[in-house]
Write a structure and sequence with these properties.
By secondary structure, the protein is an alpha+beta fold. The protein contains eight helices and 19 strands. A hairpin with a 2-residue loop joins β9 and β10.
Length: 320
């Protein structure tokens, strides 16, 4: 009895009768070479099943269509069970399915997924695929790929504030898109904040390049840049305090820091509405460090330090 290609395809598709299935099993046991050839057929089917290529290559439908094209006279059997050693059509089918499958797996493994990290009322720390660490402040949104491309590491800060500690890689610069500006670094640490249509960049270590339109500027440690939405002018200055770090360090460090600046950061950190009603106290310098203290305790220290009153009125806190 002759074993033909069409019968094996039917067997793989579970379309053989009990007698035909028994013939195939007998043929497989008759010669190790027969089993090798059967495994090659089976590999095609198993690969298509594992890959689940329903949208790209439906193995079952492909084999079924191929089966329909095989001339009916190929179904004739003789008394010798023997598979043709060189089945050109099988090579073609195997090549198409295997190459498609390998290509699909390759592209899937290399195609990064777009991830989105968002915070509400809790600060969050994310480690990116290159080892860079991002600390997201409350009410912030960062988008980044699961795996960076070959030529650059691109992330997007859509909202809020983030501190970046970038792993050095001179061959693959780290890029942050925020609004209509671009921040380019190799290995450094810096803070980026989006607020009221402006983007603020403060460098802690290393060197940062900020670009908007045709304008480009470099920032070094302790330098600060605020880029406004409706201007292309880039002008840097010195950062005067360490209060920007409060959401990472849980500390409010004031060193000759004017009261208005301390109040500005406290309003951000505690989602409060502190108002300075007396203009004569706006620039009073504060020298202290608050660590893991409540807003009420901080306001008591400020009140005693400057001998000013703190009045709570509805949803406002008034300093005067």
């Amino acid at each position: 009895m002759e074993m033909n290609d069409d019968l094996l395809i039917s067997y793989l598709l579970n379309e053989t009768s009990a007698d035909e299935a028994r013939d195939i099993e007998t043929w497989r046991l008759a010669d190790p070479a027969n089993e090798v050839r059967f495994k090659q057929f089976q590999m095609v089917w198993d690969t298509s099943t594992i890959l689940d290529l329903k949208e790209q290559t439906d193995a079952k439908r492909s084999l079924a269509r191929l089966k329909m094209k095989i001339p009916s006279h190929n179904r004739e059997r003789s008394g010798v069970l023997q598979l043709k050693p060189k089945a050109d059509w099988l090579k073609a089918v195997a090549a198409v399915i295997l190459i498609s499958g390998v290509a699909w797996l390759y592209m899937t493994s290399r195609s990064p997924k777009n991830l989105r990290s968002a915070t509400d009322q809790v600060v969050k720390i994310d480690t990116l695929s290159d080892g860079s660490v991002v600390t997201l402040n409350k009410n912030s949104v960062l988008e980044y790929p699961s795996k960076f491309a070959d030529k650059q590491r691109l992330v997007t800060l859509n909202k809020g504030e983030a501190f970046f500690e970038v792993m050095p890689d001179r061959d693959k610069p780290f890029l942050i898109k925020s609004g209509n500006i671009s921040i380019r670094v190799v290995g450094t640490s810096f803070n980026v904040k989006i607020r009221n249509g402006a983007v603020e960049v403060i460098v802690e270590s290393g060197k940062v390049q900020v670009t908007k339109g045709d304008q480009k500027i470099f920032l070094e440690p302790r330098e600060k840049l605020v880029v406004f939405e409706h201007t292309d002018v880039l002008q840097k200055g010195m950062n005067q305090d360490f209060l920007y770090n409060y959401y990472r360090t849980k500390e409010f460090v004031a060193e000759d820091t004017p009261l208005w600046r301390v109040v500005e950061v406290l309003n951000e950190a505690y989602n409060s509405r502190i108002l300075i009603k007396n203009p004569n106290i706006r620039d009073l310098p504060l020298n202290t460090t608050f660590k893991n203290e409540s807003l009420e305790d901080i306001l008591q220290v400020i009140s005693r330090t400057f001998k000013i009153s703190v009045e709570k009125k509805q949803n406002q806190i008034i300093l005067k």
